[in-house]
Amino acid sequence: MIRNYLKIAFRNLLRHKAYSLINIAGLAIGMASSVLILLWVRHEKSYDLFHDNARQIYRITANASEFKVAVNPGVMGPVLKQEMPVVKNYVRFTHPSPTLFQTGQNKFHEQNVFYTDASIMEVFSFKLIEGDRATAMSRPDAVILTKSLAKKYFGDQPAIGQILRKDNNTNVTVTAVMEDLPGNSHLNFDALMPISAIESTNSDLMDKRWDNFGFYCYLLLDKNKPSDREALRSYETQIDTIFNKNNLPGFVVTFQLQPLTDIHLRSHLQAELPGNGNVQYVNIFLIVALFILVVACINFMNLATARSARRAREVGIRKVSGALRGQLIRQFLGESLIISFLALFFAICLLLIFLPLFASISGKDIGYNSMDAGFWTGMFTIAIVTGLISGSYPALFLSGFRPVKVLKGSLQKAGGSLIFRNGLVVTQFIVSIVLLIGTIVVYRQLHFIRNRNMGFEKENLLYMPINGELQNKLGALRAALYQNPLTNNYTMVGDLPTDLQSGTINVVWEGKDPNLQVVVPNLAMSENFQEVFKMKLLSGRGFTKDFKGDSTNYLINEKAVALMGMTVENAVGKPLSMWDRKGRIIGVLKDFNFKPVQEPIEPLIVNLNDWGGFIMVRTLPGNTEATIHALEKISTTLNPAYPFTYNFFDQDLANLYKGEERLGTLFNIFAVLAIFISCLGLYGLSAFMAEQRRREIGVRKVLGASVFSIVYLLSTGFTRLILLAILIAIPLSWITINKWLESFAYHININWLVFVIAACSALLIAWATVGFESVKAAVMNPVKSLRTE
């Protein structure tokens, strides 16, 4: 019996090649698309799980007046281990410390270098290729390199014991080589050095300061102690108590224990390490994957139903011969499973072809292990579930034919639910329209981000870091920049105003409530910064060399004016103190973005920069290359031991939104695929309707009906279904899109035109799809459809 079913199934596939191709292609594209998305989702959810102690590691975060940060005092980790028995160990990391390494002629300025505790080898499970975990960080002149960085400096030679010259003044010894960090690690570094190397120079560690937050601290909790939410609150209360005992009175901060595995998707804090994802995007893509798979299944159902007339007599004869309905259901479900597994084979081929491209677009190291039992179990599960779901309705529909009516040719009265079939079409196009609207809105929001007026002109801005000897030659550097017409429109900035993270509560202004604790970001800039950035000054003046007192004077933005209870007109001249440096407000700047547009503009204080950071130059149109060469000459002359490096400011801003750009591209691709599969399904149902009404069409043509009237007749029902789908999809998409846009502090307003464009596009796609089969039915010779009458 089974052999007979298989033989019939393959004969039907070979006999109706076009049907088989469309059916298998639709399922294969749906499966491949869903699996690609699920691989991406699995990768996003796998961050930091490769550590053996992942479930026991927590990062300390802080909240001061709603200013939530990922950093804390450098002294906190050791004290917590000493005073809290539940803390088995701790690891601290500094912010990334750009470092110059040199060996022989190889000299590079590395950006991803961290100082950390020796306990990193006990808490985390980073793999060492060379070296001893127990002693790798035991000496203050140690450095651990990743495999790629070791190859960069030493080629194929053993790196252990090699000497690197650091910052042209000290030597460090390579004590271990680490495997390159996996793509699902939220910590991203190329080299590690022990914190013991900076204990005598870092003021936070020397003075054991509790009022400065400059370290990332991870705690390893005792796995034998409870770690539920209630227990964690208890530990957090203990941390608050220890902090309050050691800190200055009046400085109110609360601390939280953030699970290591939550950091990548659920952490959007100030001073956050770069590269985090967003759990909202993960959920959106999970829904898209489900939509695509559902649409593919509906497509299968419609195509199977469309050719039911060709299987009707087979069903009738089998029933007359004694076949039970259960046997027929098993037969048709078996056929759908065969198609599903054939589709799985082609889906795997598509996966192998497009996975590298998908990984490139997503910017993730996404892959699969061919020996991973979980992967293959998931693939076969998808195939089985898809086959059973997509084959269930055709199996029930075909097996329900009454043999007497079927063999008499009364197929249009045999089985099948019109409401159910129409529901499939409506469901498909609800999904399609929601994805169409999503595609339009995502594109417009990303365009808005790229082109939004940030309060300054971001183009033609070039910067280089002030490092090495430049730090000690600021006077000579300023003079050289000023004397060259290509570089004389410059300013010195302490931090780049792209994602400013620094802030202080040590700000006092006239009339401030003594109980008010608010963290105010600050930015250090030198003279001429308004001209370089082309910022707008609303009142007062900027910094100038003519006023020596500007070293303690300040500029503030409009948000700061509102915070301080002043107005733009009366703020200038008011006293202001920051870090106990008393001065006055000399100007008010128009608000500008100094953080990504996901975050609102905050109050800002600008103080005079007399210490360094970066040189920012506004280049003359058409002279960018010449300006780069001029900067290189100045840097090489004053700082010959350091390689010259530079960057474009607008590229840094673009990099802030690279994640959104990539996800937007992926969303658009999968939306198009879902719409394409929906069209296959609509084609299937239009073919079914044409098949059902073949004799009616023949009679109408004999009686003089035109091709247009017949096409109109066949299209009217589908048009009503699409209009119903539009009515349901528009409110659904409005709610969904608004929720996504709320994650941006500044975003587009959804225009009614977006819904009109999506609705019209859906109708045009539907008419084009249905029109093909309708025209085909309308031009058919009526003799063929009426010859049995």
Task: Describe the fold and architecture.
- The radius of gyration is 34 Å and the shape is elongated.
- Helix 9 packs parallel to helix 20 (658-692), helix 14 crosses helix 23 and helix 15 runs antiparallel to helix 18 (624-638).
- Strand 9 (163-166) and strand 10 form a beta hairpin.
- The protein is 49% helix and 15% strand.
- By secondary structure, it is an alpha+beta fold.
- The strands form four sheets. Strands 4, 5, 6, 7, 8, 9, 10 and 11 form an eight-stranded mixed β-sheet that branches.
Low-confidence blocks of residues: none
End-to-end Cα distance: 36 Å
The secondary-structure class comes to alpha+beta
Largest sheet: 8 strands, mixed
Q: What portion of residues is helical? A: 40-55%
What's the overall average pLDDT, rounded?
A: 86
Morphology call: elongated
Task: Lay out the secondary structure.
Elements: H1 2-15, H2 17-45, E1 57-64, E2 67-69, H3 76-83, E3 87-93, E4 99-103, E5 106-110, E6 113-116, H4 120-123, E7 128-130, E8 142-146, H5 147-154, E9 163-166, E10 170-178, E11 191-194, H6 203-206, E12 216-221, H7 229-246, E13 254-259, H8 263-266, H9 279-306, H10 308-320, H11 325-362, H12 373-399, H13 403-408, H14 418-451, E14 461-465, H15 474-483, E15 490-493, E16 503-504, E17 507-509, E18 520-525, H16 529-533, E19 537-540, E20 554-557, H17 558-563, E21 575-578, E22 581-589, E23 605-608, E24 614-618, H18 624-638, E25 647-648, H19 649-656, H20 658-692, H21 694-702, H22 707-741, H23 752-778, H24 782-786
Parallel strand pairs: 6-11, 8-10, 18-23, 20-22
Antiparallel strand pairs: 1-2, 1-12, 1-13, 3-12, 4-5, 4-9, 7-10, 8-11, 9-10, 14-24, 14-25, 15-24, 16-18, 17-21, 19-22, 20-23, 21-22
